[in-house]
Amino acid sequence: MLEPLRQGLPPVDPTAVSGSASCALPARFEAVRGARSFTRSTLSQWGLDDRFDDVALVVSELVTNALRHALPEDTRPATGAAGEPEASVRLHLMRWSTRLVCAVRDPSEDRPGGSFAPERTQENCDLESGRGLFLVDAYSDSWGWHPLAGRLTGKVVWALFMLHE
């Protein structure tokens, strides 16, 4: 999982990873709450409680986008639906000494946000929905995405947070 992420991130020494955690998320909107809880406990274990608000907001947006836009029609979330399919969205948190990355993997190969581009962020501010990637852009130091390689299909959307020691 780390190798494709490194291709889209500023250079880091892979041996300097000081922590990583991952969780599978079910295809239902309540999974966003679970993703925030997982983020809170992971950041707390890493002594990064002060970064929770920004990171949790970004995690919430990335997970919501994956659940809303990246799942096949027959597995789209339905609040309280029984017999949920196997989780196809995963949240990954990785920490280096000066960087934290949150990444959400989903089964879609479509570009995240469709027409989102940084120069259109002012337009996106005024919309009731569709502001997710604007918020990711505003609260993280950088973000990006890439298709998965090998046997896996889909993509990873990631956000980078610089840590100040």
What best-fitting shape do the alpha-carbon axes yield?
globular
Run of helices and strands: HEHHEEHHEE
User: What topology, given as strand order, has the largest sheet?
Assistant: 1-2-3-5-4
- Uncertain regions spanning at least 5 consecutive residues: 78-86, 115-121, 124-128
- The average pLDDT value, as a whole number, equals 79
Output the radius of gyration. Answer: 15 Å
Which structural class fits the helix and strand makeup?
A: alpha+beta
Oligomer: single chain
Number of strands: 5
| Cα separation of the termini | 26 Å
Strand count, sense and barrel status of the largest sheet are: 5 strands, antiparallel
Question: Percent of residues in helical segments?
Answer: 25-40%
Percent of sequence in beta strands: 15-25%
Determine the number of helices (DSSP H or I, runs of at least 4 residues).
Answer: 5
Provide the descriptors you would attach to this structure in a database record.
5 strands; single chain; five-stranded antiparallel β-sheet; 5 helices; alpha+beta; 165 residues
